[in-house]
Specification:
Layout: E1 2-3, H1 8-17, H2 21-29, E2 34-37, H3 39-44, E3 45-48, E4 59-64, E5 75-80, E6 88-93, E7 98-102, E8 107-112, E9 115-121, E10 124-127, H4 138-144
Parallel strand pairs: 1-2, 2-10, 3-4
Antiparallel strand pairs: 4-7, 5-6, 8-9, 9-10
Length: 146
């Protein structure tokens, strides 16, 4: 499953409203691979700095929402990654969250400006950027291999 970007509070509230949250938590806990990008990462995160909002909470990271600034502060940057088949890729950051802390069982797959931007814990992957906005689908092919 890929959990896309968007507005994490709205997505979380909709998952609760339509009674999907418990099913998602159960499926992901049971080993279903999931890739959360931007808002999807926020939903997967165990902790959101300074906020209480509905979320899945299984990825052992703490995130700060909109950490890179407003919409006009969005940027693109090349990052190096250890994700197989995607050694160097362009990352698009749009009102991106920042991973401010992570548990010992979380592997950093890529960093940007000294901060982790692509992480993995078991079959959960989280990205602070939007890999769907670049023409190369290498990171998605790698995820499908999980």
């Amino acid at each position: 499953m890929i959990m896309p970007g968007g507005e994490s509070t709205v997505i979380g509230n909709l998952l609760v409203r339509f009674e999907l949250m418990d099913t998602l938590v159960r499926r992901i806990s049971g080993g279903m691979p999931v890739f959360g990008t931007c808002a999807g990462l926020i939903l997967l995160a165990a902790r959101i700095e300074g906020l209480q909002q509905p979320g899945i909470g299984l990825l052992d990271v703490e995130v700060r929402r909109n950490a890179y600034g407003r919409q006009v502060d969005s940027f693109r940057e090349y990052i190096e990654t250890s994700a197989s088949g995607a050694e160097r890729l362009e990352a698009v950051f749009i009102r991106a969250p920042k991973i401010v802390s992570l548990g010992s069982n979380v592997e950093i797959l890529a960093s940007c400006r000294g901060d982790p931007v692509l992480v993995r814990q078991d079959r959960m992957v989280g990205a602070t950027f939007h890999p769907e906005l670049i023409p190369d689908a290498a990171i998605h092919r790698w995820f499908l291999g999980l």
